[in-house]
């Protein structure tokens, strides 16, 4: 499989190349040159596979530069009951006989759905780096979920170090404890005196220094990584089969969305032939995606205008993976995918101008793609947490509550609606307590983690201090490796 850029570049190499790539040289995102599809009988043949077998069947058509036995081993090592807390890896639970279901994606080490892909990334990074004799030093910024998922995925990896910046004192107590209690020689937590945007600006400033970046093998694990999107497509198949529908019957999915990576993986699964009906995009008060799917205008918001909400992992004004979706839409509207069209749109996006598709053939293609959208407020999420607890005896987190709230008005009679559970309620204890007046149950392995010793470095918002820190630690690591 040859990969191309959403903005037109043709030769990005194979899966292992784009795995380590970040952005394409033209600024676009990596996409497979074509999307392999399964016919109805091939889909039926996937029913009943274990999670790692299913992952192999779904991902293999996109990965032809890792030998079969190696890829199977990587997937078996990734999707284990001990890591994901359940033999099904992504179990499906019915909410009574309401026709609503929860697809549980948050029983992994960081208690958020990002583990589903990030754990695979940890395995496949180590494998590819080993084969190439390279190292990777991940420099990232987090306001919570991505940082802990990345750190748990890279624990103990010999060829990967993680430098994770977070805004000092601004994460939830649980999130801080999850990250800062890790005591591993390859994990460095840096608490920056500033807000999340300052952390992100520091990462950008280090990446802008090409010499430093190359010398210290700096890379990223952000949500535009193709391997993350691909690994996420697997659980749509898993959730669909768990419904036990007759062959070919449709199911709808509802996805709490921010960077559009998770719901795009659902679109990928549908494009491969899985009978998904509607894809419901759920937003919070930061509703750029809702605005697009209801009006045809995509207008990104600058960081200063992104609201701080009780579903913070969706507080995003610019949905990185949305570019992949519009790129595929050009294929439907123009007959063949157009990097030139995507490039033209993203020139506007990059300069803060709205892209308006209403009245164009592209908008007809968007409507035909069966995406619908909705949004919730803080009060909606609290009410939904309360209702789901009262009606079904099940506590959900504010992101999942956003999904359930938005899903309800889109229910179709006789068609199941699968809501993706993107985090466990314990991660957002304060909001859950505000809703139901009690704290969620805590998985035993996290009992008392707030009391564990924490290891992190407090740093001024200063790029030179950050570079000196990274360089110093990496020089130490290299010396240790030699001595
Ligand atoms: C990251 C995240 C989201 C948003 O997912 P995207 O792939 O960015 O759309 C939703 N909920 C939780 C809990 C998350 O951590």
Automatic annotation (TrEMBL):
Residues 96-350 form the Tryptophan synthase beta chain-like PALP domain. The modification N6-(pyridoxal phosphate)lysine is found at residue 114. The keyword Hydrolase does not apply. It catalyses: O-phospho-L-homoserine + H2O = L-threonine + phosphate. Its cofactor is pyridoxal 5'-phosphate. Keywords: Amino-acid biosynthesis, Lyase, Pyridoxal phosphate, Threonine biosynthesis. GO terms for biological process: threonine biosynthetic process. PROSITE patterns: DEHYDRATASE_SER_THR. Residues 2-79 form the Threonine synthase N-terminal domain. The keyword Amino-acid biosynthesis applies. One of its GO terms (molecular function) is pyridoxal phosphate binding. It holds the Pfam family PALP. InterPro entries: Ser/Thr_deHydtase_PyrdxlP-BS, Thr_synth_N, Thr_synth_N_sf, Thr_synthase-like, Threonine_Synthase, TrpB-like_PALP, TrpB-like_PALP_sf. It is an enzyme of class 4 (lyase). Its EC number is 4.2.3.1. PANTHER family: THREONINE SYNTHASE FAMILY MEMBER, THREONINE SYNTHASE-LIKE 2. Belongs to the threonine synthase family. NCBIfam families: thrC (TIGR00260). This is Threonine synthase. The lineage of its organism: Bacteria, Thermotogati, Deinococcota, Deinococci, Deinococcales. The gene is thrC.
């Amino acid at each position: 499989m040859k990969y191309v850029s959403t903005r037109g570049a043709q030769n990005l190499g194979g899966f292992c190349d784009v795995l380590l790539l970040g952005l394409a040289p033209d600024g676009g995102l990596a996409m497979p040159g074509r999307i392999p599809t399964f016919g109805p009988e091939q889909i039926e043949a996937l029913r009943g596979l274990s999670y790692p077998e299913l992952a192999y069947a779904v991902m293999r058509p996109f990965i032809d530069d890792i030998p079969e036995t190696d890829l199977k081993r990587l997937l078996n090592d990734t999707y284990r009951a001990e890591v994901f807390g359940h033999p099904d890896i992504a179990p499906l639970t019915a909410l009574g006989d309401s026709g609503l279901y929860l697809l549980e994606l948050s029983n992994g080490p960081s208690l958020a759905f990002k583990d589903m892909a990030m754990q695979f990334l940890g395995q496949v990074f180590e494998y590819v780096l080993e084969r190439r004799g390279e190292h990777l030093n991940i420099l990232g910024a987090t306001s919570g979920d991505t940082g802990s998922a990345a750190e748990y995925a890279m624990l103990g990896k010999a060829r990967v170090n993680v430098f994770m910046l977070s805004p000092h004192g601004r994460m939830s107590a649980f999130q801080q404890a999850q990250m800062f209690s890790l005591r591993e020689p390859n994990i460095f937590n840096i608490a920056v005196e500033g807000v999340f945007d300052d952390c992100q600006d520091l990462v950008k400033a280090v990446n802008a220094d090409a010499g430093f970046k190359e010398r210290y093998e700096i890379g990223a694990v952000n949500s535009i990584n193709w391997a993350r999107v691909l690994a996420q497509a697997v659980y749509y198949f898993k959730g669909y089969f768990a419904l036990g529908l007759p062959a070919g019957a449709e199911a709808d999915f509802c996805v709490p969305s921010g960077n559009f990576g998770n719901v795009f993986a659902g679109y990928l699964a549908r494009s491969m032939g899985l009978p998904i009906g509607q894809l419901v995009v759920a937003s919070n008060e930061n509703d750029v995606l809702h605005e697009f799917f209801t009006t045809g205008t995509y207008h990104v918001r600058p960081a200063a205008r992104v609201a701080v909400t009780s579903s913070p992992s969706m507080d995003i004004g610019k949905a990185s993976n949305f570019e992949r979706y519009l790129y595929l839409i050009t294929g439907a509207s123009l007959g063949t995918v157009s990097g030139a069209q995507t490039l033209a749109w993203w020139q506007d996006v990059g300069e803060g101008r709205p892209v308006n598709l209403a009245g164009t053939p592209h908008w007809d293609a968007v409507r035909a793609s069966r995406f619908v959208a909705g949004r919730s407020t803080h009060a909606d999420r609290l009410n939904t947490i309360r209702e789901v607890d009262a009606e079904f005896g099940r506590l959900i987190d504010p992101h999942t509550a956003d999904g359930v709230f938005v899903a309800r008005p889109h229910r179709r009679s006789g068609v199941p609606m699968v809501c993706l559970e993107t985090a466990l309620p314990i991660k957002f204890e304060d909001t859950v307590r505000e809703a139901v007046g009690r704290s969620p149950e805590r998985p035993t392995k996290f009992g008392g983690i707030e009391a564990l010793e924490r290891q992190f470095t407090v740093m001024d918002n200063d790029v030179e201090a950050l570079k000196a820190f990274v360089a110093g630690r990496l020089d130490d690591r290299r010396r240790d490796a030699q001595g």
